[in-house]
Amino acid sequence: MRIAIVGTGGIARVHRRIIRDLGGELVGVCGRSRAAAAALAPVPAYDDLAAMLDEQRPDVLHVCTPNHLHEAHALAGFAAGAHVLCEKPMATSLAAAERMIEAAVRAGRIGAVAYNYRGYPLVAALRRKVREGVFGALRRVSGCYLSEDGFDPAKYMWHFTPGSVGPGYALMDVGVHWLDLVEHVTGERIVEIAAQLSIHQRERIWRGGEGQGPRPPGHMAEDGSVRVMVDVEDQVDLLVRLSGGGGGSATISCVSVGHPNTIVLSVDGALKGFDWNQEEPNTYRERSVDGTLIRQRAPSLMAAEEADLTALPAGHAEGYIDAFRNIVAAAWAGMRGETDAFPTFADGLRGIRLVEAAVTSAREKRAIAVG
Amino acid sequence: MRIAIVGTGGIARVHRRIIRDLGGELVGVCGRSRAAAAALAPVPAYDDLAAMLDEQRPDVLHVCTPNHLHEAHALAGFAAGAHVLCEKPMATSLAAAERMIEAAVRAGRIGAVAYNYRGYPLVAALRRKVREGVFGALRRVSGCYLSEDGFDPAKYMWHFTPGSVGPGYALMDVGVHWLDLVEHVTGERIVEIAAQLSIHQRERIWRGGEGQGPRPPGHMAEDGSVRVMVDVEDQVDLLVRLSGGGGGSATISCVSVGHPNTIVLSVDGALKGFDWNQEEPNTYRERSVDGTLIRQRAPSLMAAEEADLTALPAGHAEGYIDAFRNIVAAAWAGMRGETDAFPTFADGLRGIRLVEAAVTSAREKRAIAVG
Amino acid sequence: MRIAIVGTGGIARVHRRIIRDLGGELVGVCGRSRAAAAALAPVPAYDDLAAMLDEQRPDVLHVCTPNHLHEAHALAGFAAGAHVLCEKPMATSLAAAERMIEAAVRAGRIGAVAYNYRGYPLVAALRRKVREGVFGALRRVSGCYLSEDGFDPAKYMWHFTPGSVGPGYALMDVGVHWLDLVEHVTGERIVEIAAQLSIHQRERIWRGGEGQGPRPPGHMAEDGSVRVMVDVEDQVDLLVRLSGGGGGSATISCVSVGHPNTIVLSVDGALKGFDWNQEEPNTYRERSVDGTLIRQRAPSLMAAEEADLTALPAGHAEGYIDAFRNIVAAAWAGMRGETDAFPTFADGLRGIRLVEAAVTSAREKRAIAVG
Amino acid sequence: MRIAIVGTGGIARVHRRIIRDLGGELVGVCGRSRAAAAALAPVPAYDDLAAMLDEQRPDVLHVCTPNHLHEAHALAGFAAGAHVLCEKPMATSLAAAERMIEAAVRAGRIGAVAYNYRGYPLVAALRRKVREGVFGALRRVSGCYLSEDGFDPAKYMWHFTPGSVGPGYALMDVGVHWLDLVEHVTGERIVEIAAQLSIHQRERIWRGGEGQGPRPPGHMAEDGSVRVMVDVEDQVDLLVRLSGGGGGSATISCVSVGHPNTIVLSVDGALKGFDWNQEEPNTYRERSVDGTLIRQRAPSLMAAEEADLTALPAGHAEGYIDAFRNIVAAAWAGMRGETDAFPTFADGLRGIRLVEAAVTSAREKRAIAVG
């Protein structure tokens, strides 16, 4: 596969490594500057996406730019005949996500979303076990996504610049992952959602460093900094009702100190329960009347159709990159028409729909039914 | 102190042991039958509360009966000039709780509620540390109370008999503890609550065993059993907003297999965070930018005024009885006029108020402000 | 039972509380001073053991003094017709332990040793499960006893005064517990031992504070302190071979920072394995080919003959005092002739024998067979 | 780098993946059969090592064959002018290891050993912190390597065939890793060792499956199986004394059920202690008088010279492959003359020396000084 990347930040570096590990051919990188693009990989560097697409004609465009640029970059990719693997969240509004899907259909190309946490072998195994009825009818689906990414009040990220991140910060940056995992693993739909939003860190100072994005609107101080009043939440508390009748609560926060990237999915069924935590992704806990069984990821735990997801014996930890590889590999296979088991643009749109419902719920202080 | 107990179930046995450990004089036990009362302790046994109070004239009546009897039993105690230590939840309605407070005032006696989980030394230490500002302004207050007490569908408890437990099962049986811990430890008030209720196990069979209470209304089958349709939730998902601006989510369940009695309080502040779990009550986790510090309960961790709460060095586990003792001792000291640092009837009423708000919220599918 | 205590330190306070909780009648306390004795409990206070025994004629003498006094105090107890419950280690030499046993036999009285860690319900349950063959033939019996009791170089305890503690510090103060647990739980004998001793903190300063014992020999500095060169190990590394063919290693240390009282017993059998840690005494881990099952202490886990050892449901933590109570209750029952299931003087002597073998092994740098 | 692999088992698959991830050019694979070699990778396949080396002239030969073949294969590699990256243990005897070193010197080529567990970022960070004095003088260095690889009595591996594995099974297969980590992280030498060996599973049945190696000597039953009496230990208990005065114990086992690959390094110093477990390689525990701090692997935790070892932010788990990559990358860099910070043949020989000392100690039941 001939791959191009647009975007040069931390997540672009992850894509670059995985493209190489999977034997993909990286044919171009486009950044805000050619220097930034050149720093990512020793391949042709661009600061003009159209030019890159025109010259390199990639099979796939990996979109690793800030949220509000996903739509334009994906559309450019489709227009150039490429498939698109887009970082999450897919877009900053439902309407934009719908336009992206239309563009994909029009171009006859595949759109995939980097819901990378689906790629853990145990996530796949748990999804299957739920489907097989191991846990019985699902009753409780709780958990959290706690991150300390925004904890330091002195830290600025492009997300804080109004208009960049979409209708939520915690919701859009990490919450979509949790919501996607819930629906993906349970095989059910969230049919009702109630949310409560908090902006704990209301003021941030842009100073123009790496990852801070272009200068936000506002008065620039003598030292070149700009004070930004953050208008998106950094914590969201959620109630969810599932199509099968289960319910649960979760808190999503980007200002939870001591939580580097804690994604917990905790489920009770009528027969058994389970808990999985992304920070220790090689085990899960299966609860029953006998107690709590810590099970290890191992090739022997997987079903035949999951065999490609894991290779190492138990006790030989797999990690974030291994899981992300699985998703990129699945998306590429989907683009080659070999599978439909990958996170699609429809899944990406679903995340935006749930985020918008949560925002409405918080504003109106009532539960919102989700179609 | 001369103590009498009304009630003979499992929690009455806990009270009996603690009364002895604290050097209290148990002067009488009253049960549904004199045999049940006699089985609890080798002291005068009654099946008539008025008779026991009249003959024994206890200083304190410990009310360990099902919820819907708390009011009548407390009122009888006050009428006989006794102080009352009442099991939680204090009553089955706000109105009943108010009548109990009026009775106490009228009698010039003290009413205390057995919010025993306040009695853990680390709960006291965390409450103080919050007050001292160690964690900064509180942002997130999440957690859970997960129990498997009602998981077995074949299990019947008096709680399932309509009219016995009050407006909720999970809420009343265990939820009040979590809500009380939140307000107690944070020193803040829950000012808004949103809830979602589930009845996962709708049908239960009464068979007349121990702890199942008297025969519920309904058709008795040939084998002497009665089928009961449960009308109270066994799971509740909550959103809470605190007076200081923090927020959080929690799930309370009595049907969560593999969770014997998991009470978690998880808090983020602007400076640090902490987590405490009742199942491992001798440690807590203090989160900061350096990582997560596991701190041990130890006398050296306590402030001077907390010195009575713990005696053993770190590594020598204290448990449920040790914590419960602290609360009984504090309540008795309160009754002797030596302290006001114990869970009062006002705290008991507060629990009922929050439960009623949660029930209203779930019914109306909207957030409810709490006075 | 009419009980007297000799000794007034921290462990005497534990005995005092348990005596009361069990309904024992405390009839006298003897200390180095009458003031110290009076401070322990509001009962007759003595500074002369013979006088206390003569005046109070207790049924049982609890010996809570430093190790080198155990022999004389136990002999005095037996001479006065009392049973003796002696703190561990039983004596400072094998010869002394043998004399104590002879005195008990001569007096027709029972000698028991406070191997309190046997009192945990899960220790009893694991001992039974081993006997039942749940784990298969035992292969590995490893673990540790890690304490930070002696970590602070500025801390002085009577143990450091030459002649007080016996042939080892870590071995005698905590190691005997681990060795006893190994033989108690496995039901096997340690038949060979190899040891390596370390004195990491060679110098300590006596200042005459509480728990530091009388002034040690040596030059007293102007500030009243005495410098003591410690001649007993604070860390011992062990290899053990069991009678059934299993083997294992362990490290015992009193200078292991961050380990308040970590006692681990980790066992592999031919069928399953288990791990138990005194710091979280309400669970154990049962390892099998399916993974690691965390089992909860619960009355339902116990056999009929173990029913008295635990009362609380799972999730309601029991602790150090609950376990210690079980051992005192068993010892008293033994003294009343009701049971022989308690730690006897023979078990106490066994500990000294193993310690002496370890000391010999370390000195001669070879494995020592133990009879 | 042009790389060739000899060997086609599980560890060869790990090397193959890492060679590709690092951008190495795999030029040939040699196996017991050309089919096995061809199955490993789509590159020229051989069943004759000399032919592969002659035709492909690789820069590096990765030796992934059973232990007793390491010497011959490494010598062949050097003779063909290749550098050699050899799997552990380096050889089956000290003499063989010495011959391999001589061959490397003669050829002017580099020999490296795949001590892959050194490659974890936290192992590097802890090694540096020890050197910086963060923990103070080291006192206790304990731990374990527990594996269930040989637990199933029905499982046969080539290791059980006499003559294949060297003087020990647990020692050679996994023990060398633990011994290497001790010396690598502490920066000290093990100067004395005492060991106790056990053969818990004495009989195994060869059936000729994958990974079982060629037919062992002995009578073949009608079903084609051969009964083998295992003459190497599956568990070893160790005492070690370090050059700096510290000491510790460890148990190494390959029959410890429920332990997929538990490698623990637990260290006490005069100031602080730490614990690291390979199964959760992204955190370590730093113990101090304040408690136990769980620290996360993160780029910010590393020193400048360690920056290449880790790329992902905290909470984004790195795993076994990431660590192994670091070692292969370091070895290749060493072969290019860019670094000497990689596990060398001298380190490999050191492992064999320690194993031989342990075996002697167990046979003679005494502690053995190690040069």
TrEMBL record, chains A, B, C, D:
<feature type="domain" description="GFO/IDH/MocA-like oxidoreductase">
    <location>
        <begin position="124"/>
        <end position="263"/>
    </location>
</feature>
<dbReference type="InterPro" id="IPR050463">
    <property type="entry name" value="Gfo/Idh/MocA_oxidrdct_glycsds"/>
</dbReference>
<dbReference type="InterPro" id="IPR055170">
    <property type="entry name" value="GFO_IDH_MocA-like_dom"/>
</dbReference>
<feature type="domain" description="Gfo/Idh/MocA-like oxidoreductase N-terminal">
    <location>
        <begin position="1"/>
        <end position="114"/>
    </location>
</feature>
<dbReference type="InterPro" id="IPR000683">
    <property type="entry name" value="Gfo/Idh/MocA-like_OxRdtase_N"/>
</dbReference>
<dbReference type="InterPro" id="IPR036291">
    <property type="entry name" value="NAD(P)-bd_dom_sf"/>
</dbReference>
<dbReference type="Pfam" id="PF22725">
    <property type="entry name" value="GFO_IDH_MocA_C3"/>
</dbReference>
<dbReference type="GO" id="GO:0000166">
    <property type="term" value="F:nucleotide binding"/>
</dbReference>
<protein>
    <submittedName>
        <fullName>Putative dehydrogenase</fullName>
    </submittedName>
</protein>
<keyword id="KW-0560">Oxidoreductase</keyword>
<dbReference type="GO" id="GO:0016491">
    <property type="term" value="F:oxidoreductase activity"/>
</dbReference>
<dbReference type="Pfam" id="PF01408">
    <property type="entry name" value="GFO_IDH_MocA"/>
</dbReference>
